[in-house]
Each structure stands twice: as C-alpha cells, then as structure tokens.
Structure prediction request, 326 residues.
Amino acid sequence: MRGERTALRVGETLISLACRRLPARIRQERYQEWLAELPVILRDPGAGPAPVRVVRMLAFAADTLRGTALAPDAHRGAHRGAGARNTAAESIRWLGTGLLLLGGLLGCALFLLAYEGCIIYQLATGPNLAFSVPLVLVNLGFFAASRIPRWASPGLRWYSMSKVVVGAGLSIWAIAGLSGWGHPLLFAIISYCGYAISVACLSMAVVHAVRYLSRPQHRASG
Amino acid sequence: MTAPLERVFRVFLDDPAALRYGYDLMKAAGLPSGTLYPLLARLQARGLVASAWETPHQDGERPRRYYHLTGEGIEVARLELAQLSARRRRGPGRQVRPAPADAR
Prediction:
C-alpha cells in the first residue's frame, strides 16, 4: 500500500509516546510488542480496504496511548484501582484532545472551502491584486515544496498548480483592469478558463489523494 | 467481573490451548487496545495469563507476543463465568426486596 511507511511511522510515534509513560523496566518490551502489531493490522486482509486498515492501525496506536495515559500502573501489574485515580479527569482531557483534533480537521476543511469561495467571489465580482498575487506566490511556494523529494506529493503539486493557474488568471485580469489595457471581457474569459483548468487540476489532486491511500505497493520489508 | 474481562475470558475459553496475539484478542473480544492491554497486564500479574514471544521471522518481521490462559487462569475464568451466569439466571426478579407498604 502506498503511504504504508508514512502511516507506520505515525503509528510508531504514537506507540513511542505511549511507552514513555510506562516504567522503564517494561518499556522496551511493550514497545516491541505493540510495534509488531502495527504492520499486522495494516496488512490484515479481513480489516477492509487500505484506508480503513490505516485508520484501524492508527486507532490501535492512539488507543494504546490512551490506555497508558489513563492507567500506566496497570501495565506494571499494580492493583486495579491504583492506576485509575484520575481516570475521570484524564478521560475528559482525552475527550478534549479528540474534540480539538476533530475541530482542527473541520477547521482546515472549512478554510479550504472558504478559500475556494473567495476565488469564486473574485471571479464573479472582479479581481483584487491584494488577493491574487499572494495566492500565486503562496502556491508557487507549495509547488516548489512538492518538488522536494522528501515532501514529494502529487496531490499537493496538482493542488498548488491549480491555485497558481487561477491566481495568475486573476492577476492578469486585475493588472489589465488597472492599466486600462485590452478589453475587460477578454481577461474575464481568460480568468474563467484559468479557473476551469484549476478545477481540472483540483480533480487530479483529489484522484492522487485517493490513490495515495489505496494503491498497493511492494512491502518495505520485501 | 467487568464486561471487558468477561469478553476476554470467553475468548480465551473458546479454545484454551490456542495462542492469542493482542490484535487477535482485540478483534475477537471487540475491545480497543487501550482497554485490552492493561487488562492483560493485570491478569498476568495475577498469574491467570501467561505470555511468550514467537520465534523471530526470517523475512525480518518483528516477532509478536502471544497470550494464553494458565491452568489457574482456566479454572478461575470458568468459575467466574459460571458464577456470572448463575447470577444472571437468578435475575433481578428473584432478588429479595422489601415488600411495598400497601402489601403489608
């Protein structure tokens, strides 16, 4: 599966965080045990399609972290009640963290939607250089970052390209409007074409994001 | 006995000789890892569950740890499940309750 190594790395990080809460004498043993389960979950054919397996593996790691946070003494073999002193407070803290993460994800999604809404608004009412130039520059930065092998991501490449195209169209339209050069309708049409290309690039970004999660790849251990 | 413990005992007693990995137990008992592993650790501390590492794989896969009930664990699990079943059979209707005032 593509992205398996990245997903495993995230899982390993969570397991490593979980083990930090354990007593030193059992830490390494638990780390080895839980780490060995991650690739098994990720390759479990009965667990559903690849994205579901990734989610399950991460849920395993995250819940292990929750378990060690709520009852680190339980792993030491202490009495049942010993580790549960602050369980209610800890549960609330974990719930808060979960809600915060969910809120963050929702916030990101809303931000991207609002960003898209702003672009459409600019196309409908006329462009503004203060919006279109940063749009081009920021996304050129993302595009350059997506070419760096360490962060190479076709999804990010197509997404930033889509925004560069639409930003360039809007900027040209705005500059032409300010300098009174050419017919405004011509540049409006160029901008709309730019947006059409941008939508096509955006679809490519979505396709790559879906493929990234579901395409099979050779196992790292091969 | 807590519900997670009951589930774990039932899974182990389905085939007491079987070696169970953590993930297999999670699936079979329907418990999340954060509940299962502390439970297994407590059972191990009480001597009811034993664990061992499987032999390392040749393909570089990490060896996994498996669990099984000890002889004492099997006895305790059977006894506790039997007691639980008996309590459930008795049900709340058979419990001794004070008679209502109008029945006196």
